[in-house]
Write a structure and sequence with these properties.
Structural class of chain A: mainly beta
Order of helices and strands of chain B: EEEEEEEEEEE
Mean pLDDT of chain B: 97
Oligomer: heterodimer
Shape of chain A: globular
Number of helices of chain A: 0
Strand content of chain B: over 45%
Low-confidence stretches of chain B: none
Helix content of chain A: under 10%
Distance between the termini of chain A: 40 Å
Mean pLDDT of chain A: 97
Number of strands of chain B: 11
Largest interface: A-B, 22 and 21 residues
Radius of gyration of chain B: 13 Å
Order of helices and strands of chain A: EEEEEEEEEEE
Number of helices of chain B: 0
Largest sheet of chain A: 7 strands, mixed
Helix content of chain B: under 10%
Number of strands of chain A: 11
Structural class of chain B: mainly beta
Largest sheet of chain B: 7 strands, mixed
Strand content of chain A: over 45%
Low-confidence stretches of chain A: none
Chain lengths: ~120, ~110
């Protein structure tokens, strides 16, 4: 059974940093692109970033480009999102997700989400 | 950037109704479109990918159609478990979600 478990969400001040983690199990981690998607309170879904299987290719939504870094440790079956220079508008539940076997950018499996609150 | 627009934003329907949600892309995305269902406090769940391919485990009352710039999600006979918010997502270029359609009890 595919499982994705996020952690690392917390209350942080504007300008601060936070690192989210997502531990994967139940599939061959290196074979799949992985994604982060966020959802502000009461709002819709926003795709944030993705990384390919070997970690060498990454992509970001414009709103986080230069501030967030996606990475993965395939030895630990873990996906990360390093978030720097956080802003109020980054407040959201952050979901990690697994793409399909052929590398497309839709999400077949989702974690339960972790809440990031940016506030002074 | 490719924009994705869903309509309606809210839909009121009764159990047994046939329900249709529309998604329009700002440019041709071929069939690179997915549909998700999300219930309050839960992660989204994939229903349809490649515009019309039913995800394994998704009920057969859900179907998707369309290509190019216009797509639909149809629920053939609405069930109590289907009251939720539905999102489309294009994945032709990067990934963009629609703003969501909330299906409410009439």
């Amino acid at each position: 059974e595919v499982q994705l478990v996020e952690s690392g969400g917390n209350l942080v001040q504007p300008g601060g940093s936070l690192r989210l983690s997502c531990v994967a199990s139940g599939f061959t981690f290196t074979s799949y692109w992985m994604h982060w998607v966020r959802q502000a309170p009461g709002k819709g879904l926003v795709w944030v970033s993705r990384v390919n299987g070997d970690g060498r290719s990454t992509l970001y939504v414009d709103a986080v480009e230069g501030r967030f870094t996606i990475s993965r440790d395939n030895a630990k079956n873990t996906l990360y999102l390093q978030m720097n220079s956080l802003r109020d508008e980054d407040t959201a539940v952050y979901y990690c997700g697994r793409g399909p076997a052929h590398g497309g950018s839709y999400l077949e499996h989702w974690g339960q989400g972790t809440l990031v609150t940016v506030s002074s | 950037d490719i924009q994705v627009t869903q309509s309606p934003s809210t839909l009121s329907a009764s159990v047994g109704d046939r329900v249709t949600i529309t998604c329009r892309a700002s440019q041709n995305i071929n069939s690179w479109l997915a549909w998700y269902q999300q219930k309050p406090g839960r992660a989204p769940n994939l229903l349809i990918h490649k515009a019309s391919s039913l995800q394994s485990g998704a009920p057969s009352r859900f179907s998707g159609s369309g290509s190019g710039t216009e797509f639909t999600l149809t629920i053939s006979s609405l069930q109590p478990d289907d009251f939720a918010t539905y999102y489309c997502q294009q994945y032709h270029t990067d990934a963009t979600f629609g703003q969501g359609t909330k299906v409410e009890i009439k």
